[in-house]
Amino acid sequence: MSKIGDNPIEVLQGVTVQVNGETVIIKGTNGELSILLPKKIKVIHKENKLLVQAGDEQKKTKSIHGFTRQVIYNAVCGVMKPWEKRLEIVGTGYNVKLQGEDLVFKIGFSHPVVFKKVPNITFKVEGNNKVVVSGIDKQLVGQVAHRIKQLKKPDAYKGKGIRYRGEQIKLKPGKKVKAAGAA
């Protein structure tokens, strides 16, 4: 069996879990998530633990077993404490504002770039160059943060653009200026 898939998931206090055949419904203080189980994967709810079991020993089933267990674990954690990704906008004159529920970026284009609100995701702007993307679905939070980053990827020479907080950008060397010498 899968090493990750064999670990039981502890259901935190304040979280309710319903297993209905091929779906697992997880409710918590921040919301509700529904997870569709792949074929050959079963979830058993015992006391305050969830056990994810694979139907057979095939390689593909083992990998799906571990993946499904991790998706359920992320959902259990997410309904209690929302997942978040932090982004930084780096560059002279680059900034972001919250306009209603949409983000408005000024990132070096001739026009402001508007990023529309995504359902079940909240945006928070810290200062004028930091964005926090949060929500209960870890996969959706990561996907939205990536879409925001794609608006203006960090450039390879100066590092200007949108990046994850703490992300190191490997910069290329610029042009070498030849020393003015006597001819």
From TrEMBL:
Species lineage: Bacteria, Candidatus Roizmaniibacteriota
Keyword Protein transport included in the entry's annotation: no
SUPFAM superfamilies in UniProt: Ribosomal protein L6
The Large ribosomal subunit protein uL6 alpha-beta domain, residue ranges: 13-80, 90-164
Organism: Candidatus Roizmanbacteria bacterium RIFCSPHIGHO2_01_FULL_39_8
Keyword entries, A-Z: Ribonucleoprotein, Ribosomal protein, RNA-binding, rRNA-binding
GO molecular function, one term: rRNA binding
A GO cellular-component term linked to this record: cytosolic large ribosomal subunit
Similarity comment: Belongs to the universal ribosomal protein uL6 family.
Superkingdom to which the source organism belongs: Bacteria
Gene Ontology terms: biological process: cytoplasmic translation
Name under which the protein is recorded: 50S ribosomal protein L6
Function: This protein binds to the 23S rRNA, and is important in its secondary structure. It is located near the subunit interface in the base of the L7/L12 stalk, and near the tRNA binding site of the peptidyltransferase center.
